[in-house]
Amino acid sequence: MSRTYRRGLYWPLISLLLCGLAACTTTRQPRQDWPQPRPDDPNAPVYPSWPPEPGSEGGVELPQQPAQPPVQNFPRSATEVSGPAVMALIQQAQAQRDAGNGDVAAATLDRARRIEPRNPFVWLELAKTQLAQDQAQDAEATAQRASAYSRGNPYIDQDLWQVIAAAREQLGDAGGASAARAKAGEIARMLPSS
Fold first, then answer.
1. Is residue 164 part of a domain?
2. Terminus of the chain with fewer CB atoms < 10 Å: N or C?
């Protein structure tokens, strides 16, 4: 192979390499310091002091967060969140429970749970059905599970605490029943009157 041919092959590679290196370089931006607040500025940010003062959260007062999201954002009933098949099963189970067929109602609600496993209204109805069948421990456990799916919905949580109170009363736990009723009452006071 001749030298001229090899030189002709290297130049395009070298120029490609140089272009690649030029693309990788960055221009240095001038350093920007945090703006220093003026001492007379009322909107100046407050930075935490170190070490924190006793009884404070790092020298900064934390804003108070609301305990619950606004109540109006929560669904009030199963019809607002359930599909038509689940609503039909809930209504069928309620009729079965009212007729004294608790086992059949529980089986119907099991079908609804398989369709919508995280629907707290289905779990609430199952807890009510278990309570009607004198299965107090199961009813309380189911109500606790429904509470996990309700995500703080006070419309459901109020009913759940009433179910828990009734379950504890069936179990002979008067103190627990009283505490659960107090919790239900506290939630009821949060709800808008309509």
1. yes
2. C
Per-block average pLDDT, block size 10, for the chain (194 residues)?
A: 60 72 62 55 57 51 49 75 90 93 93 92 93 93 89 88 93 92 89 70
CATH number (domain holding residue 95):
1.25.40.10
125 within some domain: yes
Angle at which helices 154-170 and 174-190 cross, to 10° = 160
Is residue 110 in some structural domain? yes
Please, are residues 156 and 34 in contact by the beta-carbon 8 Å criterion? no
Per-residue pLDDT, 78: 83
Q: Say whether the peptide bond before residue 30 is cis (omega within 30 degrees of 0).
A: no
Task: State the total domains in the chain.
Answer: 1
Identify the pLDDT of residue 180. Answer: 92
The predicted structure's pLDDT at residue 171: 92
Residue range of the domain that includes 108: 75-190
42 belongs to a structural domain: no
